[in-house]
Specification:
Layout: H1 2-20, E1 24-31, E2 34-40, H2 49-58, E3 62-63, H3 69-87, E4 93-100, E5 109-110, E6 135-139, E7 151-154, E8 163-171, H4 177-198
Helix pairs in contact: 1-2
């Protein structure tokens, strides 16, 4: 039942997102063959988890799947400063990652469908203090329960004044067929011109 609910919400979110809201890319970086983007809603100040995932899918990716300590450190290091700047001094700052238990409480899965093989929870997290703490954020500042970069489950909206930004992960683009063809023709023309000059 929750799977149907997630599909319906994502479908409505995707269609509504395209019509009513655009994601603003605040910062872009690359790591290990992937492109990562920090996004907010069109106000540039925050974004809900569902809107962030819809925007990520629209960009050809998903909210980030973190596979190890190195990638976790990269995400924190690459996007903290831009998120802090965009938050303009607000507290409760987190980066949305793709981990969620929206479809089945307690069954944590990545938005891209990957199995959970690495986690970096804060002490006593996931807490599930509220029934709808279905999404995971990475803290940008040190908490009472641990340093910045640890994860906590939070509600997908802003009822408790959380300030959240999405981190999108995509495969790095590879040169398209046109680019390869153009490069090949250019090289062929260059070689041909060199041969004609020698005659």
């Amino acid at each position: 039942m929750k799977a149907i609910k997630l599909l319906a919400v994502l479908t409505l979110t995707l269609s509504g997102f395209a019509q009513t809201q655009a994601a603003v890319v605040l910062h872009t970086d690359t790591y290990d063959g992937h492109v990562y983007k920090l996004i907010a809603d069109d106000s540039g100040s925050r974004i809900s988890w569902l809107d962030a995932e819809a925007a990520a899918v629209g960009m050809g990716g998903h909210l980030v799947t973190i596979n190890d300590d190195a990638e976790n450190a990269f995400v924190l290091g690459a996007f903290s400063a831009a998120a802090i700047s965009a938050a303009a001094g607000e507290n409760g700052l987190s980066l949305w990652i793709g981990l969620n238990d929206f479809t089945q409480e307690g069954q944590w899965v990545w938005a891209d469908g990957s199995a959970l093989s690495y986690s970096n929870w804060h002490f006593a997290e996931p807490a599930a203090t509220f029934a709808d703490e279905d999404f995971v954020g990475m803290t940008v500042f040190d908490w009472w329960s641990g340093p910045a970069g640890k994860w906590h489950d939070i509600i997908g909206d802003w009822r408790f004044n959380d300030v959240t930004f999405g981190v999108v992960e995509m495969e790095a683009p590879i040169p398209g067929t046109f680019w390869l063809l153009f490069s090949g023709l250019f090289a062929l023309g260059f070689v041909r011109n060199r041969k004609q000059l020698r005659i």
